[in-house]
Amino acid sequence: MSARLQLELQDADEAVAKLENWSPSSVGDSEPDSESDSDSGSGSSSSSGSSSRSSSCSCSDYASDSGSDYDSESDYDSDSLSDSESESDSDSDGLPNEHDIAGANGNKSNTERLIALLPTIFPAAENGGEEFVLHHTDLNAGNILLDPNTHEVAGIIDWECIHTVPLWFACQIPRFLLSRTRNEKPDPQTDWYKQVNEDGTGGINEGYWYDLEEWEKTQLRGFFLDEMEKECPEWVEVHRESASGLKADFESAVGEWLSWSSVEWWLDRVEDGEESHLRDILWN
Hints:
This protein has 284 residues and is mainly α. Helix content is 54%, strand content 8%. Strand 5 and strand 6 form a beta hairpin. Helix 5 (73-87) packs antiparallel against helix 6 and helix 6 (98-121) packs parallel to helix 11 (260-271). 19% of the residues are buried. It holds the Pfam family APH.
């Protein structure tokens, strides 16, 4: 384990201890004044040594490394683990409740387990010589421009979210196609989707359109893989490798701190040698 990860773990221990000391059970019924509350908040922030990061776009996570490749996949994920370890200990506005404390401890425990799994999922024999590629990590529907007449792709924006990633990371389903799996097309005539509009006429509620989008994306994922099989079978080969899926799940676990219990469940299965897909758990 790198010296940097050791330092991050020390910071995490300190942050969790502060959260526990701030809990209602230890603080009691007395409320801290605004000055002490502010000081406590700033103390927690400085101990973690990291700023707030956006989980919707990874470009900030890799901005410092976008101009050069990592030496290995292990270095790439060790760096992510270090940042996420600190991120998981950031305090919220006001004093944390029992749920905050449980989440902080859960995230810290998950990070320790991920660090232990790192050499297994990314063996030392693979270090050096891995293939890295440029990757647009925020390829969501809002960043893809279509021609209104031909419906063909006219452009892609938000290129500040581009960085170098291992090949297994790039060979995953694009973000704009991700959704919960829905194999059956929703029927607008189902009572569940019906509603009465303000003018008294019948209508369809928003739930139908959400479910329809999930069904459409499920179909499009299959179409996407079929087309990639024709255009670039090597991409599909990497995508379907079990090792690539496990590495991609590991990456998802590093950045997924709100659903720490799902990550914990996934870690239990992986440590027992079972096949489990974290991304399916998070989306479904």
